[in-house]
């Protein structure tokens, strides 16, 4: 079921992304075409004004001609400016819509991935619990074997002592006994060295296990904190996006009202 949910979410996200991309490209192309038209009209208006200025100097009423040409240029420029402002507003609204849709897609993808993250967290917790139980079992086994190891060590020492007594009873010479004792001491020293090394290795491994456990707990804590931080940032981002969208909608409504008022004023003037 988890795989199906993720697959459905991915398919929906892909479909929305494709639709948004198509609409975004169409809107961008329309904006570019309209902007190009406005730029062309601006260039033509400036050109006509330049030609009119040039022609005015060949007429008798030069100043009157220049003023008339300037007024004609301003009328056309004002109309172009009005359309430019409307186009800029539409661009801002479209860009805001695209940002909101992208944010919605990301939120949907994050929510769709939530079961997978929860399952992974559960697997990590289970693995940690298994390691803890295995460590406890190993420790219990070592503690249970400790008396047997002590008994084996004591039996070895008794065996070595009995061997020395047997040699004395067989009439071994003092020099030979000294050599035997030296060899025995060397074996005992070697045995003690190996025993100390085994103890050191066991202590080192126990320390490594403790450190690994501490690092794992630290990572789990950091992961939980990171998750909480991400969720908090997402909530803040969503709140800001909603507030911005409301402000843009309010600005758009005010702009439309202003445009209606301007149209009514123009109609009244006509």
From TrEMBL:
<feature type="compositionally biased region" description="Low complexity">
    <location>
        <begin position="250"/>
        <end position="270"/>
    </location>
</feature>
<protein>
    <recommendedName>
        <fullName>Colicin transporter</fullName>
    </recommendedName>
</protein>
<feature type="compositionally biased region" description="Low complexity">
    <location>
        <begin position="111"/>
        <end position="127"/>
    </location>
</feature>
<feature type="compositionally biased region" description="Basic and acidic residues">
    <location>
        <begin position="184"/>
        <end position="199"/>
    </location>
</feature>
<feature type="compositionally biased region" description="Low complexity">
    <location>
        <begin position="150"/>
        <end position="169"/>
    </location>
</feature>
<feature type="compositionally biased region" description="Polar residues">
    <location>
        <begin position="170"/>
        <end position="179"/>
    </location>
</feature>
<feature type="compositionally biased region" description="Basic and acidic residues">
    <location>
        <begin position="224"/>
        <end position="249"/>
    </location>
</feature>
<feature type="region of interest" description="Disordered">
    <location>
        <begin position="1"/>
        <end position="26"/>
    </location>
</feature>
<feature type="region of interest" description="Disordered">
    <location>
        <begin position="110"/>
        <end position="270"/>
    </location>
</feature>
